[in-house]
Specification:
single chain; mainly alpha; A middle domain of Talin 1
C-alpha cells in the first residue's frame, strides 16, 4: 500500500477492510474484537510511558511495551494508522459474524449502525493525531507524559467503542 502523506489513516482503514475480505470469518469473530480490545487496553499507559521515556525517565523506558526507547517516536507515529487499520480489520469487518454468537440480526444491525456512526469521527481523530505526531514530536511526547494529545485521546475513544460493543454483545446474547 502506498500511503499518501495527507490521509494515511483513511487509507489504512480502507486497507483493513480490503485485507479482511481475503480472510473472511467462517465462525464467530468475537475473539478478534476481544484481541483488539486487550491490545488497546494497555495502550494509554504505554503512551504515558513513551512520553516519560522521551523525557529521560529510565523506569518508564524499562516499562515500554511494543517498542524500545530508541524507537518510541517511530512506534508512536505509526499508532494512528495501526489503530484505524485494526478498526476495519478487527472490528467493523467482524460485526456481521456476530451471528455465530447467537445474536439476532436486528441486534447486529443496531451494533453495526452505532459503530459505523463513530468511524468517520475516529478516523478524523486519527488523522489529527498523525499530523500532531509528524509535525512536532517533542511537544507530542510532552503531552503524552500527562495523558494528553491526539493519539492518547484516540486510544481512549476507540477503547470506549470496543467496550461498548462488548457490553452490547453480552446484553444481546440469548
Amino acid at each position: 500500500m502506498t500511503t499518501s502523506y495527507k490521509y494515511p489513516c483513511h487509507e489504512a482503514y480502507q486497507k483493513g477492510l480490503t485485507d479482511r475480505q481475503k480472510y473472511p470469518f467462517v465462525s464467530s469473530s468475537l475473539y478478534k474484537i476481544r484481541e483488539f480490545q486487550r491490545r488497546l487496553r494497555r495502550l494509554p499507559d504505554n503512551l504515558i510511558n513513551i512520553g516519560n521515556c522521551s523525557a529521560g525517565n529510565k523506569n518508564a523506558c524499562n516499562s515500554l511495551r511494543g517498542c524500545d526507547s530508541y524507537d518510541i517516536a517511530i512506534y508512536a507515529k505509526r499508532m494512528p494508522r495501526n489503530i484505524t487499520y485494526d478498526l476495519a480489520f478487527k472490528l467493523v469487518s467482524a460485526l456481521p459474524s456476530l451471528e455465530h454468537e447467537g445474536l439476532a440480526q436486528n441486534d447486529i444491525d443496531g451494533i453495526t449502525a452505532y459503530v459505523n456512526s463513530q468511524i468517520k469521527r475516529l478516523i478524523d481523530l486519527a488523522e489529527q493525531a498523525s499530523r500532531e505526531l509528524k509535525s512536532n514530536w517533542k511537544q507530542t511526547a510532552r503531552d503524552l507524559r500527562f495523558g494528553e494529545g491526539g493519539v492518547y485521546e484516540l486510544s481512549l475513544e476507540v477503547l470506549a467503542l470496543l467496550d461498548w460493543v462488548m457490553t452490547e454483545v453480552e446484553l444481546c446474547k440469548p
